[in-house]
Here is the input.
Amino acid sequence: MKFQKYFVLILLISPLLLFAVYSSADIIKGPYLLDPRIDGATVKWEESVNGADGLVRYGLTDALGQEVAAQKINTMRMAVIRDSNLTSSTRVYYQVVSGTVTTPIMQFFTGPDSDEPFTIVVYGDVRTNPSDHQLVVQAIQLENPSMVISTGDYVTTGFSASDWNDFFNVADPLMQEVPYVPLIGNHEQIGGITLFKQYFNSPLGSDNQVSNFALQYGNSLFLTLDISLPYSTESDQKHWLDGQLTDAKTNPAIKHVFVLQHFGIYSSAKHGNNNDVLNFRNSIDPSLVQNGIDADIGGHDHDYEHSFLNNINYFVSGGGGAPLYDNGTSSWTIYSEKTLNYLLINIDGEHVKIEAKRPDGTLIEKVEFDHNYGPTTDDDTSGDDDTLPDDDTSSSDDDLNDDSNNVDDDSTGDDDSGTPPVSDEESNNNGGCGC
Here is the structure.
């Protein structure tokens, strides 16, 4: 009888306990921003338990005034802001309400229109060393980019919840106010990509192709490739890439095309001669060369390397916090260095400026060039091939041969890597890399 009394008491109390747990969920990851667009962004967060549905309040002032309900997928919440009243490059204030939790008011900027300049950051390989990743994140925050693209390897092991906790603990302050575009790396595939998809699926990247999509941002097209999907010459992903590159040629709003993936297509460091990297290069690079893109950006090797061949700039920016690898050089290498790094990319009309930086803010290298990937206008009578970067050696414009159009190496004059910085004379023979 004593057991029966206690059993009945437990049955009476347990619904109250369940309600208390259900209604007191905490936000343990995020909120963070994905899917940058002119008319909004996607807000995601994770709750400690499968609790309340949640919503996002937003507006053009901190008074907010609008709201959108969150989709509920287990402990994840996703609210998609799509508002035709929002315009390009506009500051949007937002706040998450999830159960009894109400976040402070945060903000982000909508994407730019095709005639507006913009600044973004690309970096990658942030796993294993949260303290080094934090140095890079803090430097990126000081740059005030409107979007951040990461080329993958957020965690050491894809199925490790603690590894993902380390990533979000460092990256949350950045992702709360800057839309984040995540690509998948090889480490996210260790043990399966379930957690990668859980945290990063959005309307931009569907559940099945979360890391393979086309993002038109301002006057630029960013094509991201997924190394977890087949990428052979006859693969669906390769055919998709070819179709995107062809279609962009007829779009007058597109001046620049960047292709991004986890692998560094041309790398002289640890993974440069790995079979998977070489297979990727042999399959994908001919399409990039044939169409004359602006640049390809990858990571995988934990260093910085800039290469130039076939009138294309190739970057390896894998210094986001993972243990650094020794850098190397090859026939294609313009400059390489063993250092934490990120790429600051400024786009203004046909002009592109890419600055590789260390987390202390010092400059590794600066690359500038003009490019028009799309159709040329009728009043273009210069005779130049606008689909290729300007070739400093053939131009009669003296301004194209000054230091601002060459590679600016380490501004301190030191050579930290043992690789001699590229001189102005050397860089002027690089056939239009903007070095």
About this structure: Residues 1-24, 379-431 have pLDDT under 50 and may be disordered. The chain is about 20% helix and 30% strand. The first strand starts at residue 27 and ends at 37. Residues 27-109 form a domain with the Immunoglobulin-like fold (CATH 2.60.40.10).
